[in-house]
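Feature request, filed as a ticket because there's no other form

It would be nice if the structure record came with a short human-readable summary line next to the tokens. Right now we just get the raw output. Example of a typical job, pasted below so the devs can see what we mean:
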Amino acid sequence: MAPLIILVVVTLVTWGLGAVGVRRWKPWPVAVRAGLAAMFVATGVAHFVGMRAELVAMVPPSLPAAEFLVTLTGVLELAGAAGLLWARTAPWAAGGLTLMLLAMFPANVHKAVTGVGLPWDDQLVPRTLMQVVFLAATLSVVVHHVRANRQAPAAPSAPMTRSTNP
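Raw output as currently delivered:
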């Protein structure tokens, strides 16, 4: 539940700063990117500090090297969070984080079905709903980028000149 709270609070605070005139934070996609970055920093750090054992326990036994997978996803979450903060890399980071969320979902199912791992949220429906919110947020960054690129004016072409030679 903490990642969802972080995402919502940071997004709303950032969006609020934009609403009161802080131009850097004005566009809503920037607020969503800030919320996602904060969330993925928190969850990425948790892969190394505080909740590592619980996260390792969540990895389905059918997957090899649970400790390595937890380390890898923690590094990817931190890298994705950094990528979200730079406009040029944000859509790529959001796309990568979307794929990672989808790839990690089996761990959420395994945790919900077996009851291993995190003690406070062992139901599949709440975990799935949170995952949908996270996916919607990451996908909104990608979709915004795609739409913005489609609406961007084409680069001016060189003026056509008529030849004056007969």
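Something like this underneath would help us a lot:
Residues 157-166 have pLDDT under 50 and may be disordered.
DSSP finds six helices and no strands in the chain.
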